Amino acid sequence: MTQKELLYIEDAINHEKNIIKICEDTIQKIENEKLKTFLKKETNEHKKTKEKLLNKLEEKASE
Prior knowledge:
Elements: H1 3-29, H2 33-61
């Protein structure tokens, strides 16, 4: 994996972290239960994506 690809993965991880933070903050501020449920599902999907990206970095580090 090239340095540019590694940087891209790091950027993607930070992007996922930001989305997760925004979703979690929004969940705390809204009252609509349907919207909260939707955002919780979205947060979980972004957490999964972040974990996959982190695993890619760990795989590369252990090579």
